[in-house]
Write a structure and sequence with these properties.
Shape: rod-shaped
Strand content: 5-15%
GO molecular function: cobalt ion binding; cobalt ion transmembrane transporter activity; magnesium ion binding; magnesium ion transmembrane transporter activity
CATH superfamily of the largest domain: CorA soluble domain-like
Order of helices and strands: EEHEHHEEEEHHHHHH
Family: Belongs to the CorA metal ion transporter (MIT) (TC 1.A.35) family.
Distance between the termini: 74 Å
Subcellular location: Cell membrane
InterPro entries: CorA_cytoplasmic_dom, CorA_TM1_TM2, MgTranspt_CorA/ZnTranspt_ZntB
CATH topology of the largest domain: Beta Polymerase, domain 2
Membrane topology: Multi-pass membrane protein
Length: 323
């Protein structure tokens, strides 16, 4: 079944009809049409662009990969590029979503099927009392779903940052410290990726609200303002988390330096303790006469000197917290 919908006067009239029938419905000013394309070919986009009068530069941007989230205003339509993000094992997974907006049609073009368009449709059904707003209603549900997933993702990353903070000052084996450093690197990389797709959303949403085509009707303006507020919160939260992860990483490296210094102090202290009896026994091991040579009291004097020096050095190092 095709992902298509037809609204007329705020009422859902048909869905799942062939995309070839879209041009017939668009001719009706009272109708609002939505259809979705998943990884379309150049030929499919060419046919759609001819029917809706889409600009060739916008169609070219759909076929180009790794576009920046943006909004382009043309004479008869808007073109938006946004990214849906989800967290899986390893790096953050992004799905590019291109959106064409005319006065009575919304076209979504997904890079792949990782973006759940069914969830967007469910949101439309839950808020069908606003369907009379036409394209503004459909576009709001789509942007709201994308931004809400950004918000949920930032919350998940924030929980992970807090877990890393709790582990930072606990004594851990070397393997766990290496795992902590790896997780910090992956978390910082994911935040940088998320920041790259979240920050431009402020310009995108505000551009939709202020565009000359007047797509957003007055009754929908508060809902778009709510989406914009969520975008600001996600942007600020992402920035603060990125700085926090950088601080955690620097603190982790500093603590590693402290641990290394502590280990060096301990090793040096034990080396000094061992060096003194080695010096004494080495000196008396020379092939020269020494006090008490061949006498029992000479042996006991050297033994007491070795043990007494070791105990004295141990107490000194312990008092200075070197051991």
């Amino acid at each position: 079944m095709s992902h298509t919908r037809l609204y007329r006067d705020g009422v859902l009239k048909a869905e799942g009809f062939p995309i070839a029938d879209v041009s017939d419905h668009i001719a009706d000013p009272a109708a609002t049409v939505w259809f979705d394309l998943c990884a379309p070919t150049h030929e499919q986009l060419t046919v759609i662009s001819e029917e809706l009068g889409l600009h060739e530069l916008a169609v070219e941007d759909v076929l180009s990969e790794h576009q920046r989230p943006k909004i382009d205003t043309y004479q008869s339509h808007l073109f938006l590029t946004a990214y849906h993000a989800r967290l899986r094992e390893g790096p953050l997974e992004l799905t590019e979503v291109s959106i064409f907006v005319t006065k009575n049609a919304l076209v979504t073009v997904r890079e792949n099927d990782h973006f759940d368009i069914g969830e967007v449709v469910r949101r439309w059904d839950q808020a069908k009392e606003h369907a009379a707003s036409g394209v503004a209603f459909l576009l709001h549900g789509l942007l709201d779903y994308i931004v809400d997933d950004h918000f949920a993702l930032v919350e998940c990353l924030d929980d992970e940052v807090e877990a890393l903070e709790d582990q930072l000052f606990t004594d851990q084996p070397t393997a766990n410290r290496h795992e902590l450093q790896r997780r910090l690197f992956e978390l910082r990389k994911n935040l940088v990726t998320l920041r790259r797709v979240v920050l431009p959303m402020r310009e995108l949403v505000s551009g939709v609200i202020r565009c000359d085509l007047r797509i957003v009707r007055p009754e929908m303006a508060p809902y778009y303002q709510d989406v914009y507020d969520h975008v600001l919160r996600v942007s600020e939260w992402t920035e603060s988390l990125r700085e926090l992860v950088g601080n955690i990483r620097e603190t982790h490296l500093t603590l590693q330096g402290y641990r290394l210094n502590d280990i060096m102090k301990r090793v040096t202290s034990w080396a000094a303790i061992i060096a003194v009896p080695t010096m004494i026994t080495g000196f008396y091991g020379q092939n020269v006469p020494y006090p008490g040579e061949g006498q029992p009291w000479g042996f006991w004097v050297s033994t007491i000197a070795v043990m007494g020096t070791c105990v004295l050095l141990y107490q000194i190092f312990k008092r200075r917290d070197w051991l």
